[in-house]
């Protein structure tokens, strides 16, 4: 039950994400960057923080972050640097984290997203910076692995030193739905850029949320930081719960305290973890082991050319230019490889512009989401994991089927063939003589031949058995080896039999 | 053999007049004789030395020539040498065995050096007398009642006492140059970034630099030539080529303008020391140098600047010694208590003092007033040197404000100890190369104690530095024909 007073509040949500970058090696050493595996296998003096070891930055990780910034319309500064964030923690080998404080690689930017109903939303970014991940602790001897009551702790340093990108958003979001849509588009953007696996369940995407409520137009209220959300769904539930909790506190005349709260997935509630008074002084200072970064404008320009298209650009194009249905768009945008394939097919196709493009795009989308996806599923492969079917081949197939040059049955057989053997559908049609017979004179000749040879069916039809026509069409298709245009055959048969 | 220079030993081993194993045997015998009174080493690496000597002899037999074939080497114990206990002079690393080798040390091994032991130092290289070592006492071979200087006290004592022909050392604010002066040997701090820091246990990363200790300038140059050069494992390592210095030594100083620093007047150091430096400067002129006066107006802020930047970096660099992964661990009821107990037991008072100073300097609310201002002062100091070097090719000044002092002489006054580095800190802050070369002796009671002349060159001009030092050394020969007093009778 909600009262008018409670409804007057709006939520203000700020998201911070940590994204593990996809690189061959760790951020500051040559160890492998790989999820999971046996503990403490990917270690060296550098990522173990041994005395005397020194960090050397991973250039690819820096490029990933700059590309993320460019894809999100952010500014790339001419200079950046790494700083040390000092605090003691057992799974942090050096007891400081190499991070970025006042000169991040990326400033500003905006995440544009589409809600489930297709409407547009956006959220500005404060910054994106690059840092190193910590190791992982596990606690032994306690119930359910919590630190409380544990008798000893083990640390796995495989993750220590993995490049980690931190994305800080402005408090622009107002609803849990928008927060999740923001996260989905952020995730997709990084997937399109191929800079991260962005899997929340593997920890390659982790997010915290700052939540406060206020009456519209008033200054921001006191915020709580929510942690331990392990899926988009738990983000949604945690935000819903926390907003409602704060509303209740205020409605009961209470006061919101600034604190960190943990989301309990099982109980479906947030718990207070620590208050802000215990906040750390991280004593940030420039890391003297690393030289400042000069981000050359020509290099940034070169990276810009590698950004390619983003999920929101894909969405816009599929909707505006290709007129696909919302359901089709969502399916395609959610899969960067599919979106890339579709886009390559349409852009390389015959109807690259003009009115015909929507029909062409529709045909390509139907193929991709229909038979192509089915065959890929059956074979357990992805569109990017195969090289038989090329965008050009799919384009030819779409053209052949739109124009009626082959029957739909032939088209499906062609697709199966191309996805197994490769090749150009158009060339195959010519070589194998698979073109649909749509010449009325030629089809009429076959029709006459079939009528002459099937007196019983003719008699049945004339006796009122409509099914006999289907049998005759089947005979035409058989005689033409499946190439006759079935609609034309049926029309000609009916003309002959009804004598019109 | 142990009296010979590194260059002579390498020539003998390469020429197969002596084997590396023979050199090592003679060297170990000398270590056995003098080490009880000197205490240069924290640990011996005799097994490793023997294996290495055999490898060198094999290489030479196979026709290879190694620039430092068979040369006995002392490694300062803040440098990793795989398989050896590497302590940084601290209880917290007392039993830590390095699993890898520092780049500079590896280059020396590859050049044929034979490592005889790990040399004592002030704990984490913080100190100017070696008295801050938690693990051993090193005595000055010229007078056993006196300190060898620091922090590279073990390295200089080992070379002065003929326990090694060469030693690695590291300099953060004077830790090569001051002890080299105290023990009458040559010690050189290269341009920041010339020698890789990979494998050097960090004190203050933006200042730490590895350099050579030797009994002759030629040896120091040969050792520098081996160690210097870009290392992809150190992001602050200079990517520029290194020109050889040992082949660019000179016999005179004609055409060289030597700058005397107005702010470094030596009158305040006492009549004897003042007279000694005046004679040194006159000798430079006599060798053909044109002597000019230059100014380093911000040098007086050197100590204050240094004692903010170096502890700030140290407070962060030394955080990793927490008992979690390696080194000393003192158990506690929880992890915070373990940290506190481990670090309380593992670090000595000077290290704790600097961690506290550095933590304070970086704290929120003080950072701008201390750390940021210190960095600005550092920039001014670098500009001072740039302007001074517009008027001269080299700067000459004292390497230390006194000769070696007696144990305990500085008492509990850390500032009195810090002042020992007054003449060496500005060069560290500016990153310019500098060395100390023996420039005579002062008498203190019965003792005659060596003094060091510091020569300073512009960035990257190590060749010029060695060339001038060689000319001066050859013309003066203060320590070339004279061994430390304590060695008489034991040799």
Describe the structure.
The complex is a heterodimer of chains A (500) and B (491). In chain A, helix 13 packs across helix 16. Chain A has 16 helices and 16 strands. In chain A, the strands form 4 sheets. In chain A, strands 1, 5, 6, 7, 10, 11, 12, 13 and 14 form a 9-stranded mixed sheet that branches. In chain A, strands 4-3-15 form a 3-stranded antiparallel sheet, with no helix packed on it. Helix content of chain A is 40%, strand content 18%. The N terminus of chain A is likely disordered. With 500 residues, chain A is an alpha+beta fold. Chain A folds into 3 domains: 296 residues, no CATH class; 124 residues, no CATH class; 59 residues, Orthogonal Bundle (Arc Repressor Mutant, subunit A), CATH 1.10.10.410. Chain B is α/β, with parallel strands linked by helices and 491 residues long. Chain B has a single domain, classed as Amidase signature (AS) domain (Amidase signature (AS) enzymes, Alpha-Beta Complex), CATH 3.90.1300.10. Chain B has an 11-stranded mixed sheet, sandwiched between helices. In chain B, helix 2 runs antiparallel to helix 3. The longest helix of chain B has 22 residues. Chain B is globular. Chain B starts with 5 loop residues before the first helix and ends in a 15-residue tail after the last helix. At the A-B interface, loops of A face helix 9 and helix 10 of B.
Strand content of chain A: 15-25%
**How would a textbook summarize the main sheet of chain A?**
9 strands, mixed
Low-confidence stretches of chain A: 1-6
| Number of self-contained structural domains of chain A | 3
- What is the CATH class of chain B? Alpha Beta
Count of folded domains of chain B: 1
Structural class of chain A: alpha+beta
Short summary:
The complex is a heterodimer of chains A (500) and B (491). Helices cover 40% and strands 18% of the residues of chain A. Chain A has 500 residues and is an alpha+beta fold.
